[in-house]
C-alpha cells in the first residue's frame, strides 16, 4: 500500500471502522487492504472434475469448514446437511457461535476464512462493506446449477420471489443466500387473547382498547428486546409502509433527505409513543435482550412482542403447550392507510455467504446447494418451525401453530408484502442509530419529533459520507 494516497487511506480507515476492524485486538485497519479482493489466494484448493453429479466441480479431497450462527434456529439443521455433503465430498469441520463478527472478522482480515459463514445475529458482519471490499464470492454458479429440490429446474428457478434480489447489492451479481423465509410481525398467544375475551386488534384504537383491558387484569400489553431495539423495526417499518404506502420505505432505503420527515412516520411514531405514555409496556423492557423479552412474553407477562418467525423455535423451551403462538400484521392506524391491514414485512432471511478467500469455494457453493435440496429443506422446516427460501418446500408438512400462522399471514397478504433493504444496506445505521431512536422513543426519553430528527440526522450523515457505498431501489 506504499503508493496509496492519504485520501484513500482515510477511506480505508472509515470502511474498517464501519466493519469493526479497528476494534479487533492485534489488527490494524490497513491490514484489511491486503486481504481485499478475490484474486491470487495461495490457500485455495484446486477444483475437482465437473460431472453431472458434481456440477460445481468440488475437490473431494479438500474438506469443508462451516460456521453457523447459533441463534433461534440452532445448528442441527446445518449438521444434518453436512452429513449429506460428507457422503459425497468428505469431512466437514463444523463450528457454531453467537459472536459471528468477533470470531469471523479477524479471519476475514487475515484472508483465512471458513468456506461457509452463516452471517446472522446481533453480531453479524456488514455484508455490504465486505462486498465492496471484494471479500465475498458471487453465488451465480450455485444459482445456475441443477436443483436438488426439483431436478428439472436450476436452483435459481426454485427460489421464492425476492430471494435473488435480497442477495444483490447494487449489481446483478448475488453475494448472499438468505436461507429462511421470515415473517415479521406482532406475535401473541391466541389462548391469552381468548382468556381476555378479545380478538386480535385490526386498528390502533382497537389495540389501545385491548391494552387497557389487559392492564385492568394485571397484564402488560407489550414487551420488546430493549438491548436489541432494532427488533422494534420488525413492526414499525411495516406500520410506516401501511400508513403511507410502500414508497415511504423506499425513501428510507434510498436515504432521501426527507425520508423520516413524512407524516406517515410521524403518525407511526406517535402511535407507539402512546403505548409508553399510557403504561402499556412491560416495565424493564428497555433492559431486556431478545431471549429475556421472549421469556416474559411466553410466561404471560405481556400480550404482544415484535419479532420474526424464528421465535417459535427460539422460545420453545419456555412456551406452554396451550400457548397457541400466532403472528399477525401490525394493526392499521385507521381507514386512511394507503395499504390494507394484511400488509406485512416478509422476506428471505438468515444470510449465508461464501468468502472469496475461502480455501474451498466450490465446496461452499455445493453445501448451499444441498441445503436447498428436498431433504434439507424439509428437515429445516420440521426441525426449527421455519419456512425456507425454496418455494413449495413446506407444502404437505405438518406445521406448528406459529409457523402455520406465518404461512397464512403471507398467503393473506398476497401482493401486499413489504421487503425493506435498510438493515441489509446500512447495518450500523439501522441497528444503532434508527434502533437507538426507537429505543429512546419507547422508553419515553424522547418524543416522536425528536425520534424523527435523530433518524433523519443519522440518515443524512450516511448519505453524505463518501466512504459508504450507496444503494437504490
From TrEMBL:
GO terms for cellular component: cell envelope. It comes from Streptomyces oceani. Its main location: other. This is ABC transporter substrate-binding protein. PROSITE patterns: TAT. The keyword Cell membrane does not apply. It comes from the Bacteria. It is found in: Cell envelope.
